[in-house]
Structure formats: C-alpha cells, structure tokens
Amino acid sequence: MFNQNSYGQYSSSSGGGEPLAFYQGGSNYGGYASQPSGGMGSMGSMGGGGYASGNMASGRMSMGSEGRWWEAFGTGGLEGEPSLMEELGIDPGHILQKSLTVLNPLGKVDTHIMDDADMAGPLVFCFAFAFVLLLSGKPQFSYIYGVGLLGTISIYTLLNLMSDSGIDAYRTASVLGYCLLPMVGLGGLGIGLGMDTAVGGILSIVSVVWCTYAASTIFVAVLRMDRQRLLVAYPVGLFYGCFALLSIFQVAK
C-alpha cells in the first residue's frame, strides 16, 4: 500500500544528518530563524519597560508639581485647589465671629451677619450640649434634638408671620443654634455642680436670658423688627427655657 522506496529515501535523508530541526534553539522554521523572534520579544519588552518607566517618570513629575500625597488628607488641600473646609462650606473665621457675637450680646450686631448662614457651628454646639449633659448623668439626646427641631419650626413660622421681609428656615436654625452656646456652659457647670439647687436655678435663669437676648438681637437686626423685639423674645425665651429644664431635671423613662 505504501511506497517503501520513498519512505526509505526520506528516512535516510533526514536520519543521516542532524537530529530533527525543531529540537534545536538556533534552527530555522521555513526560512525564519528563532533568534529574530527572540530579538523582537526583547525589543518589545524593552519598549514596554521604557513606556512603563516613562509613565512612572511622568507620574512622579505630575505628583511633584501638584503636591505630596498626604496633603490630600489634610484641610489645606493641594496647591491651587480650594481647601476641604471651603468645599464643605465651613468658614472657621465666620464661626468664630458669630460665636463672639453671642458671647457679647451687648455689642452692636451687624445686619449682614447671617448672610452666610451655616449649620456647622450650631451642630457642634448642639452636640456639645448633649455631651455635657451625658457627662452629668442626663443622657437626653433625643429630647434635645426633638425640642430643637420643633422649636425651630415654630419660631420660623412666627417670624415669617410678624416680619415683612421674612427669613428662611436655614437661617432661623443657624441663629438659634449659635445662641445655644451659653446653654453649653450651663451644662458644663452641671457636671461638677448640682443644677437642682438654688445656685443651679439662678445660673439657668441667667443662661436663658442670655440666649434669648442674643437670639432676639440677631433676629431684630436681620429682619429690622425694632418695634417688635418683645414679641420676638417671648417665643425664643420659651425655646431656651426648655433646654434649661433639660439641663436641670432628668427625664423619667
């Protein structure tokens, strides 16, 4: 069936020489040597390495021009970019200015003090008040937040009914939150002193008057309600009176 002569010629011609070509590293495959392919692989790897090193070098250059990586976790930000505090809308200078206005209620209040209202300071003071009450053995977080929310909505409604220009709820909450600062001091005194005594009652009255006077002064200055100051001060005083009661008494469970 098979041509034995042809098979013998093929085996003699291939067996008499070197072993099979594809077992040798330097042999050719149909006229193409394996060494150029290896060279091409080397060139490819060299090219890839050069490209990668170029990318790494450009990355180092870009990082060097923008700033160090740990600056991204700070509040200053990278060079040429706004700081983290600015992006969040928090201005420590304005927070300090409003806090000093509350601490000095007898001073003149700027009519534009609430043009850049924020909630950073009020939230900090509200949390601080709840925290000092917790340290004095009165964990009343839910009551503080509930009274604050209900009181803010009520005062916002009354101010818009009494004034011609009106005020938004955000500014109302901001003013009431900043004026809570004296009440935080009252809660801090309650840690070492008993607030259910005569001294505690006097300090509570002073704190309520202080908070009420500061808040009503800001509302009157912003809304230009000089002739309605007592009408503004009355609901505000009730609002801060509730916080004073929370600092004196323990709510029964």
UniProtKB/TrEMBL annotation:
It comes from the Eukaryota. It is a multi-pass membrane protein. Keywords: Membrane, Transmembrane, Transmembrane helix. The keyword Glycosyltransferase does not apply. This is Protein YIP. One of its GO terms (biological process) is vesicle fusion with Golgi apparatus. Residues 104-246 form the Yip1 domain. The keyword Zinc does not apply. Its main location: Golgi. It holds the Pfam family Yip1. Belongs to the YIP1 family. The chain crosses the membrane at residues 119-137, 143-163, 175-195, 201-223, 230-252.
